[in-house]
Design brief:
It is a single chain. The protein is mostly beta strands. It folds into 2 domains: 262 residues, Jelly Rolls, CATH 2.60.120.10; 158 residues, Jelly Rolls. The protein contains 2 helices and 27 strands. The strands form 6 sheets. An 8-stranded antiparallel sheet has the order 15-19-12-9-14-7-6-27. The longest helix has 9 residues. The termini are far apart. The structure holds fe (ii) ion. The site of fe (ii) ion has 5 residues, from loops. Keywords: Dioxygenase, Iron, Metal-binding, Oxidoreductase, Phenylalanine catabolism, Tyrosine catabolism. Its EC number is 1.13.11.5. It comes from Elysia marginata. Belongs to the homogentisate dioxygenase family. Its cofactor is Fe cation.
Length: 433
């Protein structure tokens, strides 16, 4: 595993020396803190994959009332509620909420597959919110969240510290970590949840030691605590695809120091070093993989997070936009800002598309005609644009909400006008348009 097996240490400067030296769990911690371990992998996971963090906190996290099931809104893992639908799907930008709702209340499942109980699967959400989580935090027992803000800044407080995550940045908050999201105004984005494993950097093979997303650009929070008594602080726990709530009388963000390698992180997508063909033809879109969550089969991902950043396009003798394609993987795409080259109309920021396993897709008429006849000079493409793909080896189903919300019924029409150029008597038929 590359990237995140570094051991980090962090101490809130208000408590110098809070980190024990030379051991993890002393008989008495400094400043009267409690020691608590958060395990992100099995105790016995291979050393290079082992993930855990030691937290030195004001109170252990076990002090809370029993969990009670609460309303989960549009969050669901029921993949059988809608008849299977293999069609190309495209969603117009998802609407901001009319009523006040926070990040947890604004989680809406779009599609997914699998099951957190057997720890194999994924869920894709959009979040639509407009108010902060007040004296309330969430932790996810089911998997890891990869969060892609599209509109509005997320000010996230975690047990390991605080992160400000803006559109064109992403963050990962792993299983079990308590976090609270503060937002101002209309806020929208996408989430990829994986139930099985953690995200990691893809291997680089012949690319070498540098390139794509470089490890040094992933930022982790620094320890920050608040010693705050609260009448009723609500802990929300996502467990088996449902939400449960418990209360406690204090802020859960009471960690004065921590060390370990199981920590949330953020990454600015503009730091991605794109690699592509400088002669002819296409590299497959996997060349743009930022993070991957591997399956047990080598080389096959449960899910990849792939971006299509601004870059130079220089290939000679080549149809440069994405090729026509049928895939043994599912492709969910979103647009953070700008215009996606293969479909300049219809696919808009805050919207999405889903091309399911073996469902054909590719450039629309306008893109095909334009790119087939364009002069192949070096040009900057996707300027002012950031689109992304969650690509999964799982066959995803959509939820009732996604099936009835903002679906573009005309999506299929963008390919219908593609013309036949074939002429068995004229090898140059396509060249004489
Ligand atoms: Fe594709």
């Amino acid at each position: 595993m590359s990237g995140f097996n570094n051991e980090f240490t962090s101490e809130d400067p208000r408590c110098p020396g809070a980190l024990p030296e030379g051991q993890n769990n002393p008989q008495k911690c400094e400043y009267g803190l409690y020691a608590e371990q958060l395990s992100g992998t099995a105790f016995t996971a291979m050393r290079h994959e082992n993930r855990r963090t030691w937290l030195y906190r004001i109170r252990p996290s076990v002090i809370h009332t029993p969990f009670q099931k609460v309303d989960k809104g549009l969050l669901t893992h029921d993949w059988d509620a809608v008849e299977p639908n293999p069609n190309q799907l495209r969603w117009h930008p998802f609407d901001f909420p009319e009523k006040k709702q926070d990040f947890v209340q604004g989680l809406a499942t779009v599609c997914g597959a699998g099951d957190p109980k057997s720890r194999n699967g994924i869920a894709i959400y959009v979040y639509l919110c407009n108010k902060p989580m007040e004296d309330k935090c969430l932790y996810n027992s089911d998997g890891d969240f990869l969060i892609v803000p599209q509109e509005g800044t997320l000010n996230i407080t975690t047990e390991m510290g605080r992160m400000m995550v803006e559109p064109n940045e992403i963050c990962v908050i792993q299983r079990g970590m308590r976090f609270s999201v503060d937002v101002k105004g209309n806020t929208r984005g996408y989430i990829l949840e994986v139930f099985s494993d953690h995200f990691q950097l893809p291997t680089l093979g012949p690319i070498g030691a540098n390139g794509l997303a470089n490890p040094r650009d992933f930022l982790t929070p620094v320890a920050w605590y608040e010693d705050r008594e609260v009448n009723e602080y609500t802990l929300v726990n996502k467990y088996h695809g449902h939400l449960f709530a418990a209360t406690q009388g204090h802020s859960p963000f009471d960690v004065a120091a921590w060390h370990g390698n199981y920590v949330p992180y953020k990454y600015n997508l503009s730091n991605f070093m794109a690699v592509n063909s400088v002669t002819f033809d296409h590299a497959d879109p996997s060349i743009f993989t930022v993070l991957t969550c591997p399956s047990l089969k080598p080389g096959v991902a449960i899910a990849d997070f792939v971006i299509f950043p601004p870059r130079w396009s220089v290939q000679e003798k080549t149809f440069r936009p994405p090729y026509y394609h049928r895939n043994c993987m599912s492709e969910f795409m979103g647009l953070i800002y700008g215009k996606y080259e293969a479909k300049e109309e219809g696919f808009r920021p805050g919207g999405a598309s889903l091309h399911s396993i073996m469902t054909p897709h590719g450039p629309d008429l306008e893109c095909f005609e334009k790119a087939s006849n364009a002069s192949l000079k070096a040009e900057k493409i996707a300027e002012g644009t950031m689109s992304f793909m969650f690509e999964s080896s799982l066959s995803m189903a959509v939820t009732p909400w996604a099936n009835n919300t903002k679906v573009d019924p005309n999506y299929f029409k963008c390919w219908q006008p593609l013309r036949k150029y074939f002429n068995s008597n004229n090898k140059d038929a396509a060249k004489k348009k």
